[in-house]
Amino acid sequence: MSTKLHLPHRSSRPDDLRPDEPVDEHQAEVDLVYNVQRIGAICVGAFLLVFGLIGLAGGLGFFSTEGERILGLSSNGLLSAISIVVGLVLIGAAFLGPRVASTVMAVLGCLFLLSALANLAVLNSDLNILAFEMRNVLFSIGVGLLLLVLGLYGRVSGNLPPDSPYAHERPEDPRPPESYPHTPEEFAAEAAMREAEIAVAMHAGTEDQRRRVHAMAAVHTRGDRRRVWMEFDAAQAASAPPTPIAPEAPPEHRPVLARALSLARGRQHGGARRTGK
Q1: Secondary structure of the chain: what % helix, strand, coil (to 5)?
Q2: pTM for this structure?
Q3: In whole angstroms, what is the distance from residue 125 CA to residue 116 CA?
Q4: Which of 88, 91, 113, 201 has the lowest tally of Cβ within 10 angstroms?
Q5: For residue 128, what is the enclosing H or E element?
């Protein structure tokens, strides 16, 4: 119900503004919302207060189910007293501040609607302790809707405009953005991580996989889990013994080695022919 009204700004103190001074449109919108809520609360509260005072001054029966007409509505002493209390609450909330008035009007609006339904159910019975008539029911519905509209004006909406006095900036998510793999090593680590987690969950993981999954459980983000896994890979690569490399024969020994290998192959082939294989 956050309707942005494009109305010309009128300063409450026009003498304080010079003709060439810029007008604060945002402050004008804030003042408009607050003024609607405070003035609405005062007007509705004043009517209820006058209605209640006239009823008490007329000496109405406190619990009479046959009320008398006050300002076109049926009333008794109890309804007059309740009207005075509600009127004072609305006027006091308006003077406490527009936010308080907004909240009080929204709550009282719901109560008025509930009162209309409850008194409609007992309208022609001895339980009609507020001496309600059908016009009272319609009045309660009208006042309840009016209080809801005024109380929620500029406050309740799926997407409040930024210039609304009730708009609150959403707190930023303190968590870092999700990190996705980019390099072949990171993609390989992601695949190995999933395989290890599945194996550990199935109670079929190796000791190394269990250590890695336990270490990854201490962090929360995807990037940190991948970093922990790759740190294990780096540690294993650093601790692995170097692969032995066969020494290369000196140049002067290479012909001798070649002849020895040739003779060995010849003998192997000759033995195979003699055995008929």
Answers
A1: 60, 0, 35
A2: 0.50
A3: 15
A4: 201
A5: none
